[in-house]
Automatic annotation (TrEMBL):
The lineage of its organism: Bacteria, Bacillati, Bacillota, Clostridia, Eubacteriales. One of its GO terms (molecular function) is transmembrane transporter activity. Belongs to the energy-coupling factor EcfT family. InterPro entries: ABC/ECF_trnsptr_transmembrane, ECF_transporter_component, EcfT. This is Energy-coupling factor transporter transmembrane protein EcfT. The chain crosses the membrane at residues 26-58, 70-88, 108-128, 199-215, 244-261. Forms a stable energy-coupling factor (ECF) transporter complex composed of 2 membrane-embedded substrate-binding proteins (S component), 2 ATP-binding proteins (A component) and 2 transmembrane proteins (T component). One of its GO terms (cellular component) is plasma membrane. It is a multi-pass membrane protein. It is found in: Cell membrane. Transmembrane (T) component of an energy-coupling factor (ECF) ABC-transporter complex. Unlike classic ABC transporters this ECF transporter provides the energy necessary to transport a number of different substrates. CDD domains: EcfT (cd16914).
């Protein structure tokens, strides 16, 4: 389950999506998230899903690898689905004790589940097709206008990039600790919810220690290389918009305009 989390991982490739400017991909991801919250009908979700499927096909990232990232959030999906199904008023379809399932509750539950699934897949595509270094440079470029207001844009971009970069590292560390504890007889699968929660304590303590150790090693490595932030820093590869980047950005903006028009008209 731990290794199934794909957020923060990079899938190497040379597809058109991989070669798109990271600034365009960051903007496209933010606009896609906005579009998901603008949509108020299943038809809009179908269009968003079709656009996302096209991106997945062009990126050449295996669908099985992308869907694997949904496994860790199945509990959240199930909880959200049941919460909406039982808590929304409407015409009663089924009664289970004091709880009742309504038609409006089922509609909202399915609606929210689809939105959450598309949100996770769309966000994962950003990190799956963009290297951590490109992601940092892209975020710094997009935040550069705030530098005139003395906002530490380079530091913010670096922190966000490091956080994403070390998600897989911490997941691997968690998996190693869990296997070590299981080898010593720890049981994380059986028992009540409270018992399983208590069983996680032997995992959390060494995980926090390991996280602080990794952070300290990273800080020492950056200091040893005389890292002093973005002041006076040069880049080997300068980011430049190409024709395809402009076309991709225009397509994303056109899609956003279509979603807004569809929301207003319907």
């Amino acid at each position: 389950m731990i290794r199934d989390i794909t957020l923060g991982q990079y899938y190497p490739g040379s597809s058109l999506i991989h070669n798109v400017d990271p600034r365009v991909k960051i903007i496209a991801t933010l606009l896609f998230i906005i579009e998901l919250f603008i949509v108020n009908a299943f038809f809009g979700f179908a269009v968003c899903a079709a656009a996302l499927a096209l991106v997945v096909i062009v990126s050449r990232v295996p669908l099985s690898f992308i869907l694997r990232g949904l496994k860790p959030i199945l509990i959240i999906l199930l909880f959200t689905f049941l919460l909406n199904m039982f808590m929304i008023d409407g015409h009663t379809l089924l009664r289970i004790g004091v709880l009742r399932v309504t038609d409006q509750g089922v509609y909202v539950a399915v609606f929210m589940a689809i939105r959450l699934i598309l949100l996770i897949i769309g966000s994962s595509m950003l990190t799956l097709t963009t290297t951590p270094l490109s992601l940092t440079d892209g975020m710094e470029k997009l935040l550069s206008p705030l530098a005139k207001l003395h906002v530490p844009t380079h530091d913010i971009a670096m922190m966000m990039s490091i956080a994403l970069r070390f998600i897989p590292t911490l997941l691997d560390e968690t998996d190693k600790i869990m296997k070590a504890q299981q080898a010593r007889g720890a049981d994380f699968e059986t028992g009540s919810l409270i018992r399983r929660a208590k069983a996680l304590i032997p995992i959390l303590v060494p995980l926090f220690v390991s996280a602080f150790r990794i952070a300290q090693d990273l800080a020492m490595a950056m200091e040893a290389r005389c890292y002093r932030g973005g002041v006076g820093r040069t880049r080997l590869h300068q980011m430049k918009f190409r024709k395809f980047d402009y076309v991709a950005l225009l397509l994303v903006l056109a899609f956003l305009g279509w979603i807004i028009a569809e929301r207003i008209l319907l």
